[in-house]
Write a structure and sequence with these properties.
The chain is mainly α. The chain contains 1 helix and no strands. The protein starts with a helix and ends with a helix.
């Protein structure tokens, strides 16, 4: 073999290698990249839908929890007021019992 033939073979092998690399990129890399992009877009859309749904669900629940806390605080204040009133009535009953016992002794 002469140097010209060796050079020609190297050029042919280089061209064949370049073609195989191009073919690999077209048949494997680009579709794979498209699939990744589509999957990423689908995941982002699904996550946004889930976030919207979660927000729509949590907003009423948050409002209801605040409302329940307000009702609980109001109920607590009412209970305290009732206990104060009961203590006053209990004192009045004790005073009446004392008067009745004094009158019964006489």
């Amino acid at each position: 073999m002469e140097w010209n033939e060796i050079g020609s073979m190297i050029a042919v092998l280089g061209a064949a290698g370049s073609f195989l690399i191009w073919l690999y990129k077209m048949l494997v890399q680009k579709p794979d990249q498209r699939n990744k992009e589509e999957t990423t877009k689908a995941l982002i859309e699904a996550q946004e839908k889930q976030a919207d749904h979660l927000e729509k669900t949590l907003m009423p629940l948050t409002f209801q929890i605040k409302s329940l806390n307000e009702n609980l605080n109001e109920s607590k204040r009412d209970r305290e007021a009732i206990h104060e009133e009961l203590e006053e009535h209990e004192e009045q009953l004790i005073d009446h019992d004392k008067r009745i016992s004094i009158l019964e002794r006489k």
